[in-house]
Amino acid sequence: MNEKGIDSSKEVIKEESKEEVKKESKAEVQKESKEEESKRKRKLDEEKTVEYENTLDRKYPIKEWKTECLGIKPHDDKAEHLEEINQNVVIRSNGQKRYFSTLMRVLSIFDREDLNDVYQLVMDRYQDEIPEGFDRVLWGDLMVMFNPDDENEFWNSQQDWNIVSWKLHGSSGVHTLVTEAGLVIHMLIEKKYPLGKKVLVQMLKLKLESEEDSTMALELIRFVKKLLAELESEE
């Protein structure tokens, strides 16, 4: 074969190689696209599931609140006993159950009507007694939130509070303060609480955390500013 024939063969091989590379690249791109599309679909499905779970149908109001001990198997397979973990449970009229360990969790999934229902159920259950242990935490948080009383000794320690977080829960109309020491204070946005000047100043210095910019958030900030102005005018 002459040199021209050899050169032609090389050109053909080069072209075939380029085509193979193109095919491989295209296949890789398609594979990556399918993987990205699959990830996107899974993410959307997860978001829809969360949205569905967090959208509570008011046709089924909360009928019962109680505390359950959930059996959790220890890591040691040889252990025969089960650890008992307390969980608060709300049960709707359609039998749907919601488990939660803190009021913060409640505020992220319930609306104000749900919150009122939980408060009433808890108060009815403990109208003649004060709960103990785990139940007392939720009871105490609800008492502080629904019954602001400047004579309650809870508020006497606020001079020691160092506020690190201020968050608005729009669906339930509650705003929450978290202190550096881990104390969590839940307050209804329309109620006036016996907050001192120091705490109000700290709140306004912080950026109010909200799921979205809303009229509720702006109104809350104005309300806090008004409370601070009233305290300053009294000095």
Your description of this structure?
This protein has 235 residues and is an alpha+beta fold. It folds into 2 domains: 59-74 and 81-147, no CATH class; 150-235, no CATH class. The protein has 6 helices and 6 strands. It has helices at 3-54, 103-109, 112-125, 134-146, 197-205, 215-234; strands at residues 62-72, 83-92, 97-100, 163-169, 174-179, 184-188. A hairpin with a 4-residue loop joins strand 5 and strand 6 (184-188). The chain is extended and about 85 Å long. The relative contact order is 0.07. The mean pLDDT is 79.
Q: How many domains? A: 2
Percent strand equals 15-25%
Helix content: 40-55%
**Major sheet: arrangement of strands:** 1-2-3
Shape call? extended
Query: How many H/I helices?
Result: 6
- How many strand elements? 6
Main β-sheet, in a few words?
3 strands, antiparallel
Low-confidence region ranges: none
Q: If you compute it from the alpha carbons, what radius of gyration comes out, rounded to the nearest whole angstrom?
A: 29 Å
N- and C-termini, Cα separation: 106 Å
String of helices and strands: HEEEHHHEEEHH
On the 0 to 100 scale, the average pLDDT is 79
Query: What structural category characterises the helix and strand content?
Result: alpha+beta
Region (Disordered): 1-46
Short description:
The protein has 235 residues and is of the alpha+beta class. Helix content is 49%, strand content 18%. A 3-stranded antiparallel sheet has the order 1-2-3. The chain has a 3-stranded antiparallel sheet with strand order 4-5-6, sandwiched between helices.
